[in-house]
Amino acid sequence: MGNEDVDVIPDYEGGKPMGLRTNLVRLAVAATAATALATVAGAAGTAQGAPRAAAPDKITIAYQFGIGYAPLLIIKQQRLLEKAYPGLKVDWRQLASGTPITDGMIKGDIQIGAMGTGPMLVGWARGINWKVIAPLNESDLWLMAKDRSIRTIEDLRGKRIATPTATSIQAVALRKMAQVKLGNARALDSSLISMDHPDGMQALLSGQIDAHFTSPPYQWQELGRGAHIVGRSYGYFGAHTFLVTVVTQKFYDEYTAFSNRFYKLVKQSADLLNKRPKVAAAILAREDTSDTTAAQFKAWITKKSLTYTTRPRGLMRTAGFMNKIGLLGKVPGSWRDLVFPPVYPTRGS
C-alpha cells in the first residue's frame, strides 16, 4: 500500500488529534494503520484485477443518517470503489428516509440504495425488481420518550410518535409492540409522524413530540440526555437485520462482477469495524463533518446492541408479520428470494 493509503488514517489518542511525535513513533502508527487497512483497501484491487468494462461509468449510492451506515462510510472515505475501478465516478447522497431512495431507484437516478428492512420488503412486495446485495448490520432499535409519565406502550395512545416513515422498520416494530400490548397492531397508526432521525431527536428533547422510535446513535444520545426506553425491537422480533443495501435485478445482471465486488467491500469493512474498531473509528471521524471524536465513534461501534454483519437475520419473521397486518401483499418463499448470490453462504433467515 502506498503512502496515500496510510495518510487517510490520522493519529488519535482518546479520540482527539495528538501533537507532534518522533519520527519513529509516527512510522509505527502508520505501519499499524496500513496493516489494518490492507484487507479492505487492498481487496479493492487494481485496474488489472478489475476490468474497467465490469463497472458502470458513474454510480449513485444513497444512504441515510446513523452509525449503522458505517460500512458504507468506510468505503466512501477510503474511496475503495474508485481504487477498484479507476475512472469510476461515485456520487454519495445522504437522504432523509427510505422513501426518496426508493423513488430514486425506480427512476434510475440511484443504483445502490441503503435502507431498513421495512422499505426493502415493501418495495419487493410491490413489484420493484430489487434484492439485497449486502446487509449492513443487526441492531436493537429503541422506542424513546422523555416524559416520565410515558412508561409503556399503553401510555402512547393519542400521543405523537416519530419514525422515519410509516413503513420503516421502526414503524413495523411499533406495530408489533401494539399487537402484543394493545391487541391491535394498528392501534397507534394515527399517532405516527414521519421525521428523519436527527430532527426526531431534537423534537423529542424539546418536547415537540412524545416518543421517538429511532436507531443508533440517536437512541444512545437521547438516553444520555434524559430520555428513557419504552420498548426495544429485539424484545418483540428477536435479533434482526436493521439495514441493507439493494440493487435492481437489471443492474446486477449488467454489472455482476461490480456488484459482487461491492458485497466484498461491505464485508471487509464490517470486518474492520468488528476486529479493528480503533482504526475504523479514526476513518469515521475523518469522514464525519460534526465534532464527533474517534473515541466516541469507537464507543458506538463496539456497543452490543449494534452488530455489523452481512448475514440477513429475521427477514422471514419480519415479512410474515408485515403480511399479516396488511403491509405486504405477499411473502417470499425463502430468505434467499430477497438476496443476491453473494449473500447465500451467510446462512440467513
Query: Biggest β-sheet, characterized?
Result: 5 strands, mixed
The largest sheet has its strands arranged as 4-3-5-13-6
Helix proportion range: 40-55%
Number of domains: 2
* Low-pLDDT stretches: 1-35, 38-53
Large-scale geometry: globular
**Span from first to last CA?**
38 Å
Can you tell me about this structure?
The protein is an alpha/beta fold and 349 residues long. The chain folds into two domains: 155 residues, 3-Layer(aba) Sandwich (D-Maltodextrin-Binding Protein, domain 2); 96 residues, Periplasmic binding protein-like II (D-Maltodextrin-Binding Protein, domain 2, 3-Layer(aba) Sandwich). The chain is built from 15 helices and 14 strands. A five-stranded mixed beta sheet has the order 4-3-5-13-6, with helices on both faces. 48% of the residues are buried. The N terminus is likely disordered.
Could you name the key traits of this structure?
5-stranded mixed β-sheet, alpha/beta, D-Maltodextrin-Binding Protein, domain 2, 349 residues, disordered N terminus
